[in-house]
Amino acid sequence: MTEPVLAIRNLAVEFRSRDGWLPAVRGIDLDLAPNETLALVGESGSGKSLTALAIMGLVPGPAGRIAAGSSIRFEGEELVGASEKALDAVRGNRIAMIFQEPMTALNPTMTVGAQIAEAIRVHRGLGRDAAWRESERLLDLVKVPSRRRRMHDYPHQFSGGMRQRVMIAIALACRPRVLLADEPTTALDVTIQAQVLGLLEDLKREHGLAVLFITHNLGVVALIADRVAVMYAGEIVESGRVEAIFAAPKHPYTLGLLGSTLRIDRDIEALQPIPGSVPAPGALGRGCAFAPRCPRAVSRCETEPPPLEAVAPGRLVRCWMPA
């Protein structure tokens, strides 16, 4: 694989509780190469968004922290422990993020043109007029119609799909090397979803972006991702090429996610939902975190945490009883 633009090693994120520091993300290893889309999938509460916030240096403190021994290297530069000045030079500039809900991520008191231009002026040093013209170009790039007029509109005057396009424009304003997209299509109807996904794919191809795409929608993963990492209870439980994992999933959790996904070629009665829910960080047992919900669990699964091991080139699984 091409030298990664983003390399994460042993990433752990903890939150303070009455019982001490509890792990919400536990020992994550990920690599992201230029012009690659890596999908991070799993249920709500698996730690996907928290992983992205850790990359951006946005873990909320003092209740939260990135644990000692964690490493996030961007183009060889260590971000864990970096100063705020160093992080400000990276986030929003060389690493950009599309947040999960555009209505709350956008400032309701500023026009969308002013919000895009602000990022350009802060990070690229352009003057007011030049930043405004560049903002118009970006709205055109993300296919917002009547861009000159819409520059003066406020977020509440845009539809959900158009707000998401504005978020993409802001993320691309500084020509980043890495784009973190946190559930960018969750609240959109399927037609707008397809448009946004197509736009992201075009931008990746044209600008050589490395994209970390966070989602729970495996249909979206099949459309846009090169590789996929399946996350459960703060850990990676399976990773590999998309086609390999979809063709022959190994971890019971991956099997469960695929079995509970609606498909046009199957009746709704064929759906097999996963019983239970993702455990809270303070409720993890000694063994495999998925064992209480796993149909293949044996006694060893409840007492010994399985390691993440290679089962084929580029294919990793964390399970004592893989399919």
Work out the helicity level: 25-40%
What oligomeric arrangement do these chains adopt? single chain
Q: Specify the number of helices.
A: 12
Q: The CATH topology, please? A: Rossmann fold
Read across the widest sheet, the strand sequence of neighbours is: 7-8-9-3-10-11-13-12
User: How much strand?
Assistant: 15-25%
In whole angstroms, how far apart are the ends?
27 Å
**Which architecture per CATH?**
3-Layer(aba) Sandwich
**Number of E-type strands:** 13
Query: Could you report the average pLDDT, rounded to the nearest whole number?
Result: 90
Q: What gyration radius follows from the Cα positions, in whole Å?
A: 20 Å
Question: What structural category arises from helix and sheet content?
Answer: alpha/beta
Q: Name the overall outline.
A: globular
Secondary-structure element order, N to C: EEEHEEEHEHHHHHEHEHEEHHHEE
Brief summary of the model shown:
Helices cover 33% and strands 23% of the residues. By secondary structure, it is an alpha/beta fold.
How would you describe this structure to a colleague?
The two termini are 27 Å apart. The chain has a single domain, classed as 3-Layer(aba) Sandwich (Rossmann fold). The strands form two sheets. The protein has an eight-stranded mixed β-sheet with strand order 7-8-9-3-10-11-13-12, with helices on both faces. With 323 residues, the protein is an alpha/beta fold. It has twelve helices and 13 strands. The radius of gyration is 20 Å and the shape is globular.
